[in-house]
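User: Quick sanity check before I run a bigger batch. Here is a single chain. Can you write out its predicted 3D structure?
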Amino acid sequence: MKKLPHMSVFTHIVEAGSITGAAESLHLSKSVVSQHLKTLENELGVLLIKRSTRKHTLTCAGINFYDSCKEIDKITEHAWQQAQALKDTPKGCIRITAPNALMDVVIAPAIGQLLKQYPQLETELISGDTQLDLMSDNIDLAIRVGQSRASNIKQRRIGQFRDILCGTDDLVQKKNINKAVYIANKWQGKHISHNFRDENGNEVHYGTTAQCQTNSFYSCLALIKNGAGIGLIPDFQFNMCKPDLCEVFPRLKLPINQVYALHTHDNYLPSSIKVCIEAIEKRLTKLSTR
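Assistant: Done. Predicted structure follows.
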């Protein structure tokens, strides 16, 4: 890489026709430009330009070397333009991870619309309740519930939802809830504890033991919908399941869950990631206002 600046200055000398002309186009002093050329010739061990008081003439070695330098300039310019294009036009592959509960209702529909709008955009959606590492797992964008404690992660709040403790109408209305089977996702653990708020803001505690656990949100939802027991699902999922499901405690509310978009970019967020975040935020906002 140390050779490239010398080669670039050499190209400018040839195209400007003189060291003076190259110095003016590069906004450098003539002595600095001369030193670049001298260093280049010394390292190569060949004379590139025959210099006199009146004109500069390329040697045979100089002509061949200039042709190679021009090719490098073209490659450099192409790489520069490609990198800048990513800033303005959503394109390329984006790896997105999100919890199961958010993927099919929020993430996938939002990204599906983007793919129609930006044909050069490619996405890989990774659904799972295990949080992947953005760096080691090469994740471009992570959608998570709750903030990350990692100091190297950039995060932005993009929406919210509330969990609903629910079950089938038949189970909730006709069976003693204290005897109902609690169906838990693995991350909830065995011992279940929920703190609700009533209409006056008073806290109401509900605790039980999970008799059924699953490592998949969709398995948990399927069990609840089939009347196996009660469990938590996000409000936007619950709204889609009505009237098959109903709230266990319709007058009580669980705390709001905040949703964040996480990435590792500092000052320059690629447009591909930016439009994905905006589309997911829009979709989540639309669902939460139903």
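The first strand starts at residue 49 and ends at 51.

User: Great, the batch can go ahead then.
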